Amino acid sequence: MNPPRQKPDLKNLHPATQLVHGGTTRSQFGETSEALFLTQGFAYPDMETAEARMKGAEPGFVYSRYSNPTVAMFEERMALLEGAEAARATASGMAAVTTALMAQLKAGDHVVAAKAMFGACLYVVEDLLPRFGVASTLVDGTDLSQWRAAMRPQTKLLFLETPTNPCLEVYDLAAISKIAHEHGARLVVDNVFATPILQKPLQHGADCVVYSATKHIDGHGRCLGGIILGSRDLIENEIHNFYKQTGPCLSPFNAWVFLKSLETLALRIQQQTLTAARIADFLSGHRHILKVRYPGRPDHPQAELVKRQMMGGGTLVAFEVAGGKPAAYAVGNQLSLITIANNLGDAKSLITHPATTTHQRLTPEAKAALGVGEGLLRLSAGLEDAADLIADLDAALAVLDREELAAE
């Protein structure tokens, strides 16, 4: 009999290889595709085993709200890609954010967060956490002096997303994590826009990373999900108990979909990034566009930081149409190929008007402070041919020429 084949050391291999093989556990049938364990509970061979597993004295699965073989494969693959020791998958991206924050906080604690963030995350920081006695301070994420000034003895967490939604600001992870650690606090990073392909927050000092797997990780607009990654101590001793007791667990079916999607994540991000860069270049020279924001361009306000911290400009472009909301709506409504939707990271290119969708709950003053103007559009580049997308944008922007002529 031949000796068993050696398993590769995936930690030393490239992300594209990790995304195909990471975390794979085969059943007795030896399937090539990951198995879908669509089960609520698990049977024990005897009462003693049941007792040992419930106590944590013996490894094994107990209940799918705690853990599940398919979900565990997804968690292990994501942890390998991120360079994290452990992970817990959740039912949505917002479940990941809320769990990551609340599991580490208690009444009397204080959070410092960048004010430029997704509207639902802002709700958690500004409205939800204070209900449980956790104070918060919002700062300009690009201004390190504001992070330092906001720190208190009670500060336990710093929270940010970078690049930001929707204006694509980029924050200095190494510098901000240093501020956190000097005050005995931790840094939690929402890395959804950059993806683990283009940015590794843990390598820059972050303590915890969260994703909406609904976005690029699925990449095809099918399933909701999220994931929290960090050290084994953080995940198993702080996150897991909150997770187990409150139940934000990921469906095994969704985990299986994500596993299959991860196999093509590196390829998709590479192509979508190239397309986004071409779109940004086209828009930057258009007479109806006031401003283009793309982290891969040299005119981005944090271009030097992007070079140090990211491995590409990403899949999203933000641009401001001259003429405010009426002009932005006219362009969006004229598009025939690019879909109007407030999601991102899809195989299909998507466009949204942040002021009336993702950031609609903010006051006009808050929107203005974040740069979310009435003419701002956010475009998520898909997998269509870049030339076709540019032609679609060009034709849509031409509606503004016709409106100008009509006004004359």
Tell me what you see in this structure:
- The chain has 408 residues and is α/β, with parallel strands linked by helices.
- It has two domains: 10-37 and 68-262, Aspartate Aminotransferase, domain 2 (3-Layer(aba) Sandwich); 265-407, Aspartate Aminotransferase, domain 1.
- It is built from 15 helices and twelve strands.
- The strands form two sheets. The chain has a seven-stranded mixed β-sheet, sandwiched between helices. It has a five-stranded mixed β-sheet with strand order 8-9-12-11-10.
- Helix 7 (173-182) links the parallel strand 4 and strand 5 (186-190).
- Helix 4 runs parallel beside helix 5 (119-131) and helix 13 packs across helix 15 (386-407).
- The longest helix has 22 residues, at 386-407.
- The radius of gyration is 22 Å and the shape is globular.
Write the layout of secondary structure elements.
Blueprint: H1 15-21, H2 47-55, H3 69-82, E1 86-90, H4 93-102, E2 110-114, H5 119-131, E3 135-139, H6 144-150, E4 155-161, H7 173-182, E5 186-190, H8 195-198, E6 208-212, E7 226-230, H9 232-246, H10 252-262, H11 265-284, E8 289-293, H12 303-309, E9 316-321, H13 324-334, E10 339-340, E11 350-352, H14 364-370, E12 376-380, H15 386-407
Parallel strand pairs: 2-3, 2-4, 4-5, 5-6, 10-11
Antiparallel strand pairs: 1-7, 6-7, 8-9, 9-12, 11-12
Helix pairs in contact: 1-3, 3-10, 4-5, 13-15
